[in-house]
Amino acid sequence: MTPLRPMLLAGLALTLSTPRVEAGPVYVASQGAGTLSRIEAGATTVAATIAVGQGIAQVAAGANGRLYLSQPDHAGIDVVDGRTRVVLQRLPFPGQAFGIAASADGLSLFVGDWAGGRVVRLSASTGAVEGDCPVGKDPAGLVLDRKGRLYVADRESRQVSVIDAARMERVATVPVGEGPFALGLSPAEDRLYVANVRSGDLSVVDTGSLTVTATVRIGRMPYGVATSEDGSLVLVTNQQAGTVAVLDSGSLGLKATIPVGRYPEGIAVDGAFAYVANWFSDSVSVIDLKSLTETARIPVAEGPRSLAVGSNSEAVR
After folding, report:
1. Rg of the chain over CA atoms, in angstroms?
2. Which CATH number is 26-309 given?
């Protein structure tokens, strides 16, 4: 298991891989400081910092500029308006909220109950429970595709659970590596990439057949995964090595190894750049996806672990 700072749970980050037309703001959740930082597309400084509360596990971007942050130590989901930079409310959660995903229509949230071995669907406006589904032990990363299929990394069960989000029924399980943690969908949603923390590899799942078609050795504790918007690159953070591995999605061969900060975890792609949350360096690395180099390192508040990309229509007020 990852070394932990005092009183904080092991974190993660995940990226919803819905294709984007234009780059939007990047939001960085700092677990130690309990803040949400906003970085404008292409910028190398923090535009705004929003105080939320210590113990954030994940952040997910929803519709209408909403951000949702899971609070496992406080049994709730914080709702933030990214446009006005205001914390709107804390939705109650009947369990230990961890991994989180938002539906595209803005109506529902899907939240993993870390201690309860289940995923709960909530109303995004009221927090009312709309359904739940049992999964494996310690559900970590969640990712929702455009057809309403939810994928869940069951860290202690060495599998990915596949859920019909409308019915909240598990329709399949896919065996993967040891300690699956973060998930990333290809833009075409024909592949699911699974970062396996303990076995140090990446499982490539065909989403049509729901079978593993390849396993790629990555390195020392792969913690976050994302794809370029054209689907040609797969980027995986190596937490203990302090690097990002870049794979060619066609051959699955290694194209580059990019040094970043200490203990990189979450990674998100926004247009021509990737952003990496460096947990122990209190910074975000900016990677140019053309040159495959780190072009900037942005200081942020203590303990950045999770990132989400907001809508390009959001304007700071």
Report:
1. 17
2. 2.130.10.10
Q: How many C-beta atoms surround the C-beta of residue 87 within 10 A?
A: 17
Beta bridge partners of 236: 225, 245
Q: Could you tell me the residue ranges of all domains in the chain? A: 26-309
Whole-prediction pTM: 0.92
Give the 3-state secondary structure of residue 64. Answer: helix
Query: Following DSSP, what letter does each residue of 20-58 receive, concatenated?
Result: -SS---EEEEETTTTEEEEE-TT-SS--EEEE--S----
Q: Residue 61: which H helix or E strand, with range?
A: strand 59-61
- In which band, very low, low, confident or very high, does the pLDDT at 311 lie, cut at 50, 70 and 90? confident
Whole-angstrom CA distances from 283 to 41, 56, 136 are 16, 16, 33
pLDDT in tens, 225-234: 999 999 999 9
Among 289, 270, 308, CA closest to 14: 308
Q: How far apart are CA 213 and CA 197, in angstroms?
A: 19
* DSSP assignment string, 97-139: EEEEEE-TTSSEEEEEETTTTEEEEEETTT--EEEEEE-SSSE
